[in-house]
Each structure stands twice: as C-alpha cells, then as structure tokens.
Amino acid sequence: MEFETLVQSRRSVRGFKQQQVSRDVVEAIIESAKRAPSSMNTQPWHVHVLTGGPLEELRRRNMEEMVGGAKVKRDIISHGEYQGVHRNRQVDIAKKLFGAMGIARDDKPMRQDWVLRGFRQFDAPVSLVLTYDRVLDPGAVCHFDLGALCYGIVLAAWDRGLGSVINGQGIMRSDIVREVANIPEDEVIMTCVAMGYPDDGFAANAVRSDRESNDEFVRYVGFAD
Fold first, then answer.
1. Predicted local confidence at residue 35, as pLDDT
2. pLDDT given at position 64
3. Average pLDDT over residues 164-179
4. How far apart are the first and last CA of the chain?
5. Is residue 37 pLDDT above 90, yes or no?
6. Which of 19, 124, 150, 197 is the most buried (most CB within 10 A)?
7. Cβ atoms of 192 and 60 closer than 8 Å
8. Who's near 135: CB < 8 A, 6+ residues apart?
9. Considering only CA atoms, which of 167, 154, 164, 177 is closest in space to residue 55?
C-alpha cells in the first residue's frame, strides 16, 4: 500500500475480533517499525509484547485497581486534564464515539463501561508496551523517538490488516504492568498499543476524528507567493 493511502485510511480501532495474532506477524510489524528515526540513532526503545494469560492478568488488575478508586500511577509525568481547544477536541471525538455506539449522555452505566474498555485495552488480543531507557530522563527527546516508533508500529500493523489503538489507559498502573510483564526498573513505561484484527461490526471502528485545516496550524516562511 502506498504511504499516503496507508496514512489516510488508517483509523483507531476500539473493537477487535477475538482472533489470535501470531508472533510472526508481530515480529514483521516491529521489523518494519524499528526503522523509525531516533535522535543521533540512539534507538532508546524497548517493546514488550503481551498476549494470553499475562495480558488477561494485566487488564484485570488494571481495571480492578482503577474501578476501586486507586490513584493513577504512571511512570511518566501527566499533563493533567485537558483544557481549552484540546479539551474541545477530546469532547468532540467522545461525542462521535458515543453517538456511534448509541450511548446516551445520561447513560452513566454505558459510559462507565466504555471507560472500563479502555482500562482493559479494548479487549485486544495483543498489547505492545513501549518503554525507554531510564538513564535518558528527563526524556523529551526520547519521548519524541518513542512516538516515531509507535506510529511506525501502527502503520505497519494496518498495512498487514491489523488495527490498533494507542492506549494510555492500559498503563494507568505502571507498577502492575511492570510486575506482570517483568519489565526492568531501568526502563520507563511510556504507553501501550492495543492490537488485533478489527471487528468490522463494531460501530465505533467506523468513527474518524476530525483534523484542523492546514491554515490553522501550519506557517510557511520564505516561500514565494
């Protein structure tokens, strides 16, 4: 698939078939994605791929902790709640998703269930936990590098017929992720990518988020009119 077509067609997938994803397929995805650029070719990333029993334990414990009122315990510093234009965009996609799923504004149980799906990594059959070397903290540059790797994973997966969603809710309790996946203390847990074959009958999978026009966020300097 040509790159532009790949980018334009890719979407976040929040409903997956309960179909196993083979290790060979994941290996091929990572083999492609690892060509992502990194600062000075430092390649600061690590990928921990979970499926089966360990993933089930991770999502169960993550969900139980968050439902039980436990505080978020991420390795990385959070920006807190979104405000202003960023909050508006967050609300916009939420409205689209709830509309597609038929979840009414006052339907608290269904809205809570949607939140729990995020904690469960949307019941995807595979989760890729992305980490970086702690020695590089404070890590603005290596965060950027992991973003490049993450997007490479998402595109490489889509090219092979797999959907994914970059899922910060899945690592809300980084301590549990570290324990279950046996991640060394010298690695910082950044995010995870829930992955699997898309369930085309899941209404939210058809939702596409809006993008601002280029005029809203792009400036051209030094170009002739």
1. 96
2. 85
3. 90
4. 34
5. yes
6. 124
7. no
8. 186
9. 177
Q: What percentage of the chain reaches a pLDDT higher than 70?
A: 95
Angle between helical axes of 108-119 and 84-101 (0-180°, round to 10): 110
Residue that has been written with the tokens 């269904």 in this structure: 110
Contact, 173 vs 72, CB < 8 A? yes
H-type alpha helices, the chain? 3-9, 23-33, 52-67, 84-101, 108-119, 140-159, 174-181, 214-217
Q: What is the pLDDT of residue 181?
A: 95
pLDDT at 109: 85
- Tokens matching residue 207: 């939702």
3-state secondary structure (DSSP) of residue 88: helix
Block residue for tokens 């993450």: 150
The encoded tokens of residue 33 equal 């994605």
Phi, psi of 74 (to 5 degrees): -90, 155
Cβ proximity of 155 and 10 under 8 Å: yes
Q: Are 130 and 191 in contact (CB under 8 A)?
A: yes
Task: Give the model confidence (pLDDT) of 73-125 as tens digits.
Answer: 888 887 788 899 999 998 898 888 888 888 888 888 888 888 888 888 999 99
pTM of the model as a whole: 0.91
Cβ-count burial 55-85 (b if 16+ within 10 Å, e if not): beebbebbbebbeeeeeeebbbeeeeeeeee
**CB 19: neighbour CB atoms within 10 A?**
10
Across all residues in the chain, what is the average pLDDT?
89
Q: Is there a contact between 13 and 205 (Cβ–Cβ < 8 Å)?
A: yes
